Structure formats: structure tokens, C-alpha cells
Fold:
Amino acid sequence: MHRRTLVLAALILATAGYTRFLSDVEAVPLRRPLASVPLEIGAWTGVPSSLEERIVQVVGVEDYLLRTYRAPDGAAVSVYVGYYERQAEGDQIHSPRHCLPGAGWRPVQARVVALETPGVNGGVTRANRVVIQKGDERQVVLYWYQSRGRNITNEYWAKVWLVVDSIFRKRNDGALVRFIATVPKGGDPDAVARRMEAFVREFLPRLQEVFPA
Structure:
């Protein structure tokens, strides 16, 4: 994409009038429902859960996956994928940076990490890794935006590409992909993150199979 196009999209975004470009886009469905992602991922076994209908309405997703995967030793990873066939004003991907503080969690560490993911996202998936805390509880969160073949970690650039693709590709489908693991009391967040990232590498190829091209 030409640099001037990105600059133009950034300027449109800055005017706060970008939502008018979101109306003339096609809905792009998943290849298969998210529920078709296997419950067995390597040695991990998933247990499905569900959101309250009022939350689904607020979030605005067309499909979502909410599961807890457990390893034989009891390690657990919570997985959420929320997919939007098209994004419009009021129905756009919600950033965890805004949602988690509202639930009482505060970030204590945050950085972007690069995960080797052969066959997915060009072999490297970039993710926001955030350690959050509420009282004496800590969790490690990994998340990013999977949008029209792109792996995006920055909320602002996600909006820029939303405008660009709405104008030039007539589509703006996308997903929030998020993983959460609890840090045991006295545990090492980095060790928890490494274990979770190993699961992510196994999970992503199966998730990628349901996303549109």
C-alpha cells in the first residue's frame, strides 16, 4: 500500500468522520463457524463457555469462541476470539486496553512480542503481552487484531487499516484474538507466558483454517 494512502487514511481518521466510509462494505463470513476449531489441541483439551446474550449484543460480534484449554498437568489458558463480518459505527472491535481496567484489572507490564508461528502470519505473529493485576491476583494476557490477512498489535494502526480497506477493498472484517493465563501466587509471569505461547503456536493453525482469505 502506497505511503500516501496510509497518510490520507490517518488524516481521515483524525477528523473523526471516518465512520462514513464504513457503510459501503461487504460482510465477509468465516469459512466455518468458530465452534469448528477442535477442542483437542495437542495435549490440551478445551471446555466451551458462552457469553450472556446482552454482552454479545454490546460487543457486536457475528461469531465468537470462548473456551478454557487445559494441559494434563492442570495448566489452563482462556481463549477468546470475537469475529466481525463487517465493522460499522458502534460495532467495532473492542480493545482489551479499555475493557480490562473496567473490570478492575490494571496493567503492570506491557510489551509487544514476536512469536514464531510457521504457516501463520508469514511465520511470525506479533502480540501484545500484558501482565495485569487485581489485588494479589495476576494474569498474563496475549492479544492482537487479525484483520483481512494482517496481524496488528496497535489500536491506532488497526483503525487506519480499517479505513484503507473499507475504501479500497470494500471489506473491513476482523477479529480480536486473546489468550489469558493465571500466574500462580509467587509464580513467574514470564514462565506462564512461555507456556501459553507454546499453546498459541499449536492453536493458531487450526484457527487460521476458519478465517476468510
User: Anything to note?
Assistant: The chain has five helices and nine strands. The two ends are 18 Å apart (CA to CA). Residues 33-146+173-205 form one domain.
